[in-house]
């Protein structure tokens, strides 16, 4: 099924960015990580290891809230590590959830976070506790391999078992694809799990044997794959490098429409960078899908830009060489052509909240969380509640692409117990008491941990929504589903560029405002106004919301209204 790397192609492209050199010299992701983590003199690691450790699912960060204070005391920054698990489709057992909860208390900052790619991140782990963290994850049969780095990342899948009769047939493909595209280097097992040394690089090029797909230079940049089951598009499947849209007939999975070239990140001041939605190019059967994803990744490995990391995502490769070229290259490598696309329609993104029953007579609770942060506060203690639910083994857990969670596989007679536990901890089990805007909000982490953040997101968006809610109420829009998203920089982790109302941080307290994304995840928004502070955000949005309330057509979504009214013609 897998073919070796064509000789020369991968080698030819090297010499570009410094990250390429680091990968080249890393001996399959080992670098000097062992030495860096043994050095007791600093909470940091070497510059090269800082890049390499991403492939092990970890970012080195520092607590940005404490930078000035540490500087004044002539101390090094408060270095800490974020670690991201690999959880295809976001599915964990009750035991695994409990392990995640314990890890956050023992080694992290007593919180953890459900991400927009259906996985879990821990923050605030100091260098000397990272190994213990990874070992604790391993004990719970979880790993962080390829959580970050220039490889295929966590594979996503529509999580709601109640929404589709073919969910159970589609779901295993997330794991199969993730495992098929995992790096094969044993570096992770040696460094963190103390397994005996595996094969390392010796002169003479054993790349094909040790890392058959990736070679020693891995991919030019990260690579993302997601699966959606129409008519629901919870994960905005077209934001991925490869989007797979499940096609079924008479409750049987026929295969997948394949979409390629999505990616949301862009860089301010670089006109040649842009967000792009994946383009549907053809259909493959379930038996063909592993070949399709494998060879697509291999094409990006061989033709992606390795000189400029700002232009190295697969979307730029697709736009440089063209879709027709890509289809031919893929067919040549796979030994078959994609078939004609099957028709499908997406009607929604976002999650279904509350209880629903599935065909196996079990129940599922869609639980809305505040931007995925699992923590106890003065008002509510959702972390303790979910830990208690897991301790009593009342359900399994599925993270969603919108930073929420589904409590799945619940027996009918356990429903009341779950509701009670949530209530005892100050948490409502459905989200109907929240505004439609809040129910449909996403914010990336941003400050205080993300080194890229130029403005707040997770810590600010809930407050901004609190200020927008009286305006919504005034115009009778409080229950309307409107997608609002905020990121602290243009990298796109919170998918702001797909929101009906999107904010991208410019500087502390200031945001660019984007409007007009599609509610179904199939249209990007456009820049409407730049550099707004909170007062300007509120005064800009109020008249538009008022017009929407008064002039919308039946069933017209906010994003569609913006477009029909031509508001984006007067943009920025
Ligand atoms: C140049 C591009 C990007 C860079 C450098 C970047 C970097 C980062 C960093 C440093 C974090 C950790 C923040 C923290 O936990 O403190 C993060 C989080 C995350 N990123 Fe990105 N990112 C980029 C683009 C994207 C894109 C386009 C997506 C997907 C649409 C994405 C998905 C995520 C997710 C799911 C998280 C987890 C946190 C969350 O759910 O908010 N990233 N990213
Ligand atoms: S969008 Fe920017 S600020 Fe937000 S988590 Fe991603 S990199 Fe950090």
Layout: helices, strands, pairs:
Blueprint: H1 9-12, H2 18-24, H3 33-38, H4 47-52, E1 58-62, H5 67-72, E2 79-84, E3 91-92, H6 94-106, E4 112-114, E5 120-125, H7 130-139, E6 156-157, H8 167-170, H9 172-180, H10 187-193, H11 207-210, E7 225-228, E8 242-249, E9 252-260, E10 279-284, H12 286-303, H13 314-321, H14 323-334, E11 354-357, E12 363-367, E13 373-374, H15 382-391, E14 396-399, E15 405-410, H16 415-424, H17 436-439, E16 441-443, H18 461-474, E17 484-487, E18 501-507, E19 510-515, E20 526-532, H19 534-551, H20 558-564
Parallel strand pairs: 6-7, 7-8, 16-17, 17-18
Antiparallel strand pairs: 1-2, 2-5, 3-14, 4-5, 4-13, 8-9, 9-10, 11-12, 12-15, 14-15, 18-19, 19-20
**Fraction of helical residues:** 25-40%
What order do the strands of the largest sheet run in, or round the barrel if closed? 1-2-5-4-13
N- to C-terminal distance: 50 Å
CATH classification, class level of the largest domain: Alpha Beta
What name does the CATH topology of the largest domain carry? Answer: Sulfite Reductase Hemoprotein, domain 1
Small molecules held by this entry: protoporphyrin IX containing FE, iron/sulfur cluster
Number of strands: 20
> Mean of residue pLDDT?
93
Report the β-strand fraction as a percent range: 15-25%
* Computed structural class: alpha+beta
Biggest β-sheet strands, sense, barrel: 5 strands, antiparallel
Second-tier CATH architecture of the largest domain: 2-Layer Sandwich
The tally of structural domains comes to 3
How large is the count of helical segments? 20
Instruction: State the assembly state of the protein chains.
Output: single chain
Shape: globular
Radius of gyration: 23 Å
The name of the CATH superfamily of the largest domain reads Sulfite Reductase Hemoprotein, domain 1
